[in-house]
Amino acid sequence: MTAPQSKAPSQVRAGRLAPAERRRSLLESGIRALSENRIGKAVHADLAKIAGVSTPTVFHYFPSRKVLIEEILNDVAGVIRSQIISIVDAESDKPEEALIDSGHAIAAFARDYPEYAKVWLIWSTLYDPDYRPAYLKIEQEFLAVCAKLLSR
Question: Using the 8-state DSSP alphabet, how is residue 9 labeled?
């Protein structure tokens, strides 16, 4: 009797997760898929391969490519808000220090969330009418808090 052979790395499947955990895991895999394949080229199958799940599993959570991309970009925007905008927007008695802190926050974001930073930069050059308005909204939020900081 021969020993059972293990599956090749590309055939290893993800373990069972609660629906909220699976969705979070898929969003994280989606960030990687977008950072590797560009927003315009990433598809459900790319995300499934990275996450180690079937393509129908991805469709279960994100029924269309548009919904998939929008949810991933919303996740990127949320991280930008929490890691950069909230820091730049923090009230400070010393605006000069706050300006320096904002630069540090952007550098830390790029260091700590490199795939998110890459997707943010790719998103900034995407002029697709489905995704451009959401980018412009996050850009306006960022510019508004920078203007507030500079006016102090």
Answer: G
